[in-house]
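Usage

Read records sequentially. Each one opens with the input sequence:
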Amino acid sequence: MAWFKEGERGLAMSIRQTAVPGGYALGAIVLPYLAYTYGFVEVFTASALFCLIAALFAGFWLYEPDFSSSAAKKQSMETSASPLKDLRVWRIVLAIGLLCAPQFAILTYAAVFFHDFSKMDITLISTTLAIIQVGAIVSRIWSGRWTDKNKNRRAYLKTCAWLSTLTFWRWAPWCGQRAFMA
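and closes with the structure output:
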């Protein structure tokens, strides 16, 4: 993130965070077709190849920014203890976990839910999930730019966390499951 100024970091982070929905959209389209047409060995082979390609791109494209700027020099001169001893780091880790848990819950169980409970066709499931993930990509990029423009990233993320909580709270009874009451 050192490449970006304070007013650009929300957009930069949101673009970086499109990897999960982008990979999910690609997988939702490609992997069911491969499984149906060729079998599961080919699904795992294709997944391994996608990972290899991503690793090669990372190796070619990722590099450290030029730290010759005065801000970078000032930051490097400051001595700090291990980041694991910093309470702020643990707060960030907890917040990231809380924001990612609903996303991964949906990514994990959405296809099964659509197939088993909605009796949808696999092609319709794949297309639906891919479209949802493309929407997630667009909304992430938009929200990153919006929070940069309005300087409200923290408030926006808190609102997203509360909306996710309320959404899951409301879905639990609809799915026939008891909601966890804290």
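Summary fields computed downstream for this record:
- Helices lie at 9-16, 19-37, 40-61, 70-77, 87-116, 122-150, 153-174.
- Residues 12-174 form one domain.
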